[in-house]
């Protein structure tokens, strides 16, 4: 039996006065939070002690498994508040239910409840399709995308515009030694000599940063980091200079 993909994270060491609204605001930056389709509330559970007081632990359930990795990488070991302690974010582990437990004693839903669930599920799926990262969210593609600076100089381009093709090939060849590459973009109008590389998975992106950051290329020390949503200058197909986001290049 194939297990279902993991879509929940377990969060600990939260401020004791944290509430559902605050957690939803923080964790929804990294993906769509699942909902109780009947109640219409986000699937965030705050764990309490015998006296009903919040213990500082919570469960956050996302709609898609990609958000689990994203939220862990972005939030684990960070502070929820400036003066607070570091929170721990990890994959939630669940004990697999037996067939008897899975069947349970669930009551039959009314037609009105079924209609409510269908309506909310449709809205949630539409929201998930539209979610691709904006000013307040992180696009999952950014996890597997890196930015390499000081890969070239403007003097090199002025001397030979065709050198851009060589730079693209060199960057791709070097990165392919680490992992499978989806896309390489040279932002020719950037003074810092910016090249973006998108891998097929985030592990390769992390390894590339570790291996290439600080390495010398063409006499310059490379600065390699994860892409953070910034737009860079590039000459477009019509010869015009404008700022581009790597998210524009999907093919």
From TrEMBL:
Q: SUPFAM superfamilies of this UniProt entry?
A: RNA-binding domain, RBD
Ordered alphabetically, the record's keywords are: Coiled coil, mRNA processing, mRNA splicing, Repeat, RNA-binding
Recorded GO molecular functions are: RNA binding
- Family annotation (InterPro entries): Nucleotide-bd_a/b_plait_sf, RBD_domain_sf, RRM_dom, TatSF1-like, TatSF1-like_RRM1
The residues forming a coiled coil are 95-134
- Database matches in CDD domains: RRM1_TatSF1_like
- Biased-composition ranges, Basic and acidic residues, are 229-239
Which PROSITE patterns does this entry report, sorted A to Z?
RRM
Q: Name one GO biological process term.
A: mRNA splicing, via spliceosome
Where's the RRM domain?
7-94, 144-229
SMART domains under this entry? RRM
Question: What Pfam family is a match for this entry?
Answer: RRM_1
GO cellular component annotations of the record: U2 snRNP; U2-type spliceosomal complex
- Region annotated Disordered, chain positions: 229-251
**According to the lineage, what is the superkingdom?**
Eukaryota
Into which family does the record put it? Belongs to the HTATSF1 family.
Record's protein name: RRM domain-containing protein
What organism does this protein naturally occur in? Answer: Wickerhamomyces anomalus (strain ATCC 58044 / CBS 1984 / NCYC 433 / NRRL Y-366-8)
